[in-house]
Here is the input.
Amino acid sequence: MTGHNPGMSVTGHTRSTTAASDPRGTQRKPASIRDVAQVAGVSYQTVSRVINGHPSVKAETRRRVEEAVEQLGFRRNATAFALASGVTRTVTVLTSDTVLYGYAATLRGLEQAARAAGYSVGVRVLTPEDDLSRTISAATGTGGGIMVIGFDRLGAAALDHVPSDAPCVAAVEAPAPGRTPSRPAVWVDDRAAARTATEYLLGLGHSTVHYVALPPSTGSRRSAAPRAEGWRQALKDSGVTPPPPTGRGWDARAGYDAGRELARDPSVTAVLCGNDDLALGVLRALHHAGRAVPGDVSVIGFDDAPHSAFVTPSLTTVRLDFGGLGRAAFDLLRAQLEHGHQPLDAAPDDPELVRRESTGARRA
Here is the structure.
């Protein structure tokens, strides 16, 4: 991995916007690093240090340079920076999905942070038919860094195939207590969040809580995934034997199929779903079966996808900060790519239970 050389100046800079016209109507040349240096009253080497984030610049000098950059509309040329610093300012994201809310929101958070730092982002969508070794070899061959969204088995497998010497981070499910991922990673504590949601339903008087599970990211047991573990532990701590989890997928169709099974059992009064898409399917199945929500059955989703506030009834759910997860992942990756960059140690917001209309006290 190569890093930024603070002693090397970057001179090949251009503006990304259209060059301004002078009063005679002719086009001015884009501002260069030397133009910025002249306006700020410093050397062009100092300007290079400022725009490349070198720490050994006085605060007053940095302020003058930043004001000159803003005044002239100066923009750093990414190609020139890469040549001079040895840093390829690109990120390749490996993911099996770009549509499901958690994946899309994580990707959006990373892209926003990367763009603000002058990086470009590419996405490679993984499929079960892929030769992962070949796919990842092609991704690492372009230089830059790799970010893996490892919320499922395919993403977790891809992470295992990334060469150890490649700059890489991952967004993953919460690891088991006492374990850490093999590569730098970020996550939210969805295990604790599922426990909180289950305890909330028990507190409403429900004797037990059924769970519509997501497929696990590793192994084959749905009950081993962190959200399932949090649900199961909350029941056990309350002296309740957990019922078998149901569910065979990620989308509303899978939720509908699970909901039809649950609706046939009159003892089912509370359901926790692994994501909001599953919950949407469960709500529809309960409606078709004549089971009122929340009068007969309370339902909680997970993730707080945008649609969850607008279904009828509006969905109680667990809000997860996927955007913050993506931003934190990029910051961690940037520290591997740029010598001297210190990660901000910024974590995503803690999960939050958002109470809406789909939950209520159990009827006597």
Observations:
- Residues 1-27, 78-86 have pLDDT under 50 and may be disordered.
- The chain has twelve helices and ten strands.
- The longest strand covers residues 90-95.
- The longest helix spans residues 101-116.
